[in-house]
Fold this sequence. Notes:
alpha/beta, Malonyl-Coenzyme A Acyl Carrier Protein, domain 2, Alpha-Beta Plaits, six-stranded mixed beta sheet, four-stranded antiparallel beta sheet, 10 strands, globular
Amino acid sequence: MSSIYVFPGQGAQAVGMGKDLYENNADARAVFDEMDTALGEKLSDIIFNGPIETLTMTANVQPAILATSVAMYRAAKIPMADYVAGHSLGEYTALCIAGAISLVDAIKLVRLRGESMQNAVPLGQGAMAVILGLEYDALKTVCEQAEKDTGKICDIANDNCPGQIVISGNNDAIERAMEIAKENGARRAMKLALSVPPHSRLMMPVADIMKTALDNIEIKEPIVPIISNKTCQPMTNVNEIKDALIYQITHGVRWRESVLSMVDMGITDLTEIGPGNALIGMVNRTTDKITTHKLEI
């Protein structure tokens, strides 16, 4: 019987997240203050007061979610779990919590990651969509057909849980894939309010930028293993961690498979730490062998 802490990615944000903690907990306040200093701006004001349009900009939302999640963990003063994991951006949070990357470096890395994603694809040319009711192999075929029909890129970005998969790529290919998915029995195909197409081949320039950035910071061996979005297996090796962080920029998040690996590894207790509770829902739709909790402070 083992435990794991998991940390959310982009999409978990809400205006006001962490505000009560900032006002009432010194440990949490220190995290947000450190974030503002690292970025040279008062991102905390946007997190606490909005507007939501500014908060959801990719360059803002990534450090915002990371800082809020770390603030919640530090305020709770709970013992470390046996493992950690994060969904996409959440991998950086998990590595920070596990002592592999300092908070300042993690904040700067995800700000760079967000800015680079925004700059990689001109506005309106990239898109993401969630497809409900098709399994992975069927949707893979749909993406291949959409690419053939449009000559553009369509990749599986997030394999979240059975019947819930997100695709990412050029707008034309995503729209074509949504049509084909519905023709092939998808219950729903819905565009996401995100013009950046993460976890797709369109992010190749970002991978190069992040490789350079990761080579220039200190990464330590984490105090507990992190379950990788790349391999769905625990990792502690510093070079493997770097490779995984670069890989996930242009490849899909294998969350469903990661959860099944957790079951195989004997993990029975999972706590989601950070804004929202999307990961708990994904875990519960994937397995009934893990007891899930939301950290409440």
